[in-house]
Amino acid sequence: MSGSDVDRWMADYDNPQKALVQAVREAILAADLRVTECIKWQAPTFTYKGNIASFFPKARKHASLMFHSGADIPGTFPSLEGDGKAARTMKFADAADLKMKRAELEAVIRAWCDLKDG
Fold this sequence. Notes:
Elements: H1 3-12, H2 18-31, E1 36-40, E2 43-47, E3 51-55, E4 63-67, E5 88-92, H3 95-117
Antiparallel strand pairs: 1-2, 2-3, 3-4, 4-5
Helix pairs in contact: 2-3
C-alpha cells in the first residue's frame, strides 16, 4: 500500500481533526525523503526500515501519533510522551501546537531514519 492508499483513507476519514491529521502527515513526509506511508492497523503509518509511527485515528480532541519504538529513538524529545518499554506518543492539539512542535517532530523522524541507517 502506498501514499495513494493513504489519500483514499484520508478522503473517507470522518473526524473533527482531519485537517490537523493531514497537516501532521505532510510535516512527517516533508521531514525526510526516506519516509514512506501506508495503511497498517487501519490507520496511516509512516515507515523507514520498519514502522516509525501510526496515527490513532479515533482521537477526536487532538491528532495523536504512536511511535512504535519511540523509546529507541536517540535524542531528547520532550513532546514524546510515555514511559513504557517501547512505544511513545506525540499529540498535537491544533495547528498552532503543530507549528510549535514541528521542528521537534521533524528531528524525531530524522533521528529514526539515521538510527536505521547507522
